[in-house]
Design brief:
Shape: globular
Order of helices and strands: HHEEEHEEHHHEEEEHHHH
CATH architecture of the largest domain: Alpha-Beta Complex
Largest sheet: 5 strands, antiparallel
Strand content: 15-25%
Helix content: 40-55%
Radius of gyration: 20 Å
Strand order of the largest sheet: 1-2-3-5-4
CATH topology of the largest domain: Aminoglycoside 3'-phosphotransferase, Chain: A, domain 2
CATH class of the largest domain: Alpha Beta
Structural class: alpha+beta
Number of helices: 10
Number of domains: 2
Length: about 350
């Protein structure tokens, strides 16, 4: 992995004004060793106007394209849900710093079993963050899915199981000490806005149960369907968007992923079966990595924490957007069971 650009090479572009397209082109050229680059389409605008992800075509490089994640903090923020204040802004700032640290210090440990884009370079220039990444579309992961069959869910669970196995017991240096974007300590406004008094009172206990789990790993922290890129045949997957990666119980990723791709009825029918599949995959992943962990103890603890993780995410939604489609009859029954 390229650790970044030399300080001398950055001095001429550190300034208060936003970086020009030419400066960005020069950075991509340097990161990819291309002869020339051409800015292409905007793949995605970042949440609340905090920047964009852009594809660049390359000439004279080892590969034909690369992706630049360009974070630039706006002077005025328009949050799509109306949630914006100094705390939410600082959470976003921290999240991009975490993502930089992820790609600089940790991402290269991921293999084909939990594929992530290769990072060619990352750097902070003034108040702007720049991450030049491998274009997953060009290396065999061109498909994005808006819905999954059970086989597709299992493919993503395989990624999660291998990711959790890889980082089991690791110290999350420079990452979130508690992974996930809905972590209670970072969401006091949403907690205050909640109408459910019983859930509000229980929130610290729920958070503590997850945080005090004996078995901790790194969790992706935003493992929704939209952050998985699929191979053409749908049998392999890579993941993106590591702003909220950090320590945690793996059930937080699994519960959140299920919420992103399973309907109310499918949750009812398949959650238990798919959770069984996850633990089979996790055991295989730990054995493949020659882990000496007590898997029976891990499974017993994490299975008991699965509905707790579901309730933890529900707690965030109930304050943030109580009419969200993910709040359904199934999740309400899970929450009531946990609270009781």
């Amino acid at each position: 992995m390229n650790e970044g650009f030399s300080p001398a090479g950055l001095e001429n572009i550190k300034r208060e004004n936003k970086m020009s397209n030419k400066q960005l082109n020069d950075i991509v050229v340097k990161a990819t060793a291309a002869d020339d680059v051409q800015r292409g389409e905007v793949i995605q605008s970042l949440w609340s106007g905090y920047g964009e992800i852009v594809r660049y075509s390359l000439s004279g490089a080892e590969f034909s394209s690369a992706v630049l994640k360009h974070v630039k903090f706006p002077s005025l923020v328009s949050h799509p849900r109306g949630w914006h204040n100094d705390l939410s802004h600082q959470r976003k700032v921290n999240s991009y710093e975490v993502e930089m640290a992820w790609y600089q210090n940790w991402a290269e440990r991921c293999d084909d079993r939990c594929r992530v884009p290769q990072c060619y370079a990352s750097e902070t220039v003034g108040e702007e963050h720049l991450i030049v990444l491998e274009d997953l579309d060009a290396v065999g992961f061109p498909r994005r899915r808006t819905a999954l069959d059970l086989e597709g869910v299992q493919v993503c669970l395989g990624w999660l199981a291998n990711f959790h196995a890889l980082f089991m017991g690791e110290d999350p240096v420079a990452l979130w000490s508690t992974g996930s974007y809905w972590h209670l300590a970072t969401r006091p406004d949403e907690l205050d806005a909640m109408d459910d008094d019983a859930l509000r009172d229980a929130a610290p206990v729920i958070d503590s149960k997850l945080g005090r789990a004996t078995f901790q790993t790194f969790i992706h922290g935003d493992a929704k369907l939209a952050n998985f890129c699929f191979s053409a045949d749908g049998k392999q997957v890579a993941a993106v968007d590591f702003q909220y990666v950090g320590a945690g119980c793996g059930m937080k990723d699994v519960a959140y992923f299920f919420s992103s791709c399973l309907s109310d009825d499918d949750h009812e029918k398949y959650a238990s079966l798919l959770l069984d599949d996850y633990f089979i995959l996790l055991k295989e992943a730990l054995l493949w990595r020659e882990s000496s962990i007590d898997f029976a103890a891990l499974e017993q603890e994490w299975r008991a924490l699965f509905p707790v993780a579901q309730t933890d995410f529900y707690r965030f939604l109930a304050g943030w957007m109580p009419a969200h489609w993910k709040i359904n009859d199934y999740t309400k029954r899970v929450v009531q069971s946990v609270l009781s």
